[in-house]
């Protein structure tokens, strides 16, 4: 006999995730290899665009790397700063870190039809899937990109005017002049 519950339970969720990982490792040599490799650890990746004078948030990218993939979860630029290629710079910096510091070979992301599929296509991403009516009336696109090449921006041009500095918290920041 069983009963079904619908409550949120963090402990059960953790246990369920562990059991699924165990099953995946048992059934997949790839997952088994990843489990025992540094590439199998998911690592957060965040890139922030801050106003120089005030430190106010002007944009940012939140993602993660795992198994030689960059997964972009969030990318946003303040409406007052759009059109200045700042989204391209944020994405390019995340791709650079993923490629050069974390040995990622590919990137993926999801975006809705009213957000930025055209922007991502211009950055070299290609649509590999669509989910219609998610939510109703909206199409979600799944896009991927190869992260080949070093020292170039997402459109293949060498980046000019970028300089790297320590940020005082153990991270590196890149400054772009206008």
From TrEMBL:
Keywords recorded for this protein, A-Z: Transferase
Region of interest (Disordered), residue spans: 149-178
Biased composition (Basic and acidic residues): 155-170
Organism whose genome encodes this protein: Streptomyces liangshanensis
Entry annotated with the keyword Transferase: yes
Stretches assigned to the N-acetyltransferase domain: 1-148
GO MF annotation terms: acyltransferase activity, transferring groups other than amino-acyl groups
Full protein name: GNAT family N-acetyltransferase
């Amino acid at each position: 006999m069983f009963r079904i519950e619908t409550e949120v339970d963090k402990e059960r969720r953790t246990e369920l995730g562990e059991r699924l990982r165990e099953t995946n490792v048992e059934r997949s040599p790839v997952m088994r290899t990843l489990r025992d490799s540094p590439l199998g650890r998911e690592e957060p990746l965040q890139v922030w665009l801050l106003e120089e004078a005030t430190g106010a948030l002007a944009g940012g990218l939140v993602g993660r790397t795992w198994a030689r993939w960059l997964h972009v979860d969030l990318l946003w630029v303040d409406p007052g700063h759009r059109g200045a290629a700042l989204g391209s710079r944020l994405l390019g910096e995340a791709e650079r870190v993923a490629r050069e510091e974390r040995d990622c070979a590919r990137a993926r992301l999801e975006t809705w039809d009213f957000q930025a599929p055209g922007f991502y296509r211009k950055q070299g991403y290609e649509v590999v899937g669509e989910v219609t009516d998610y939510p109703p009336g909206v199409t979600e696109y799944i896009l991927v990109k190869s992260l080949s090449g070093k020292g170039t921006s997402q459109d293949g041009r060498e980046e000019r005017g970028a300089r790297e500095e320590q940020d005082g918290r153990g991270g590196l920041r890149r400054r772009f002049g206008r």
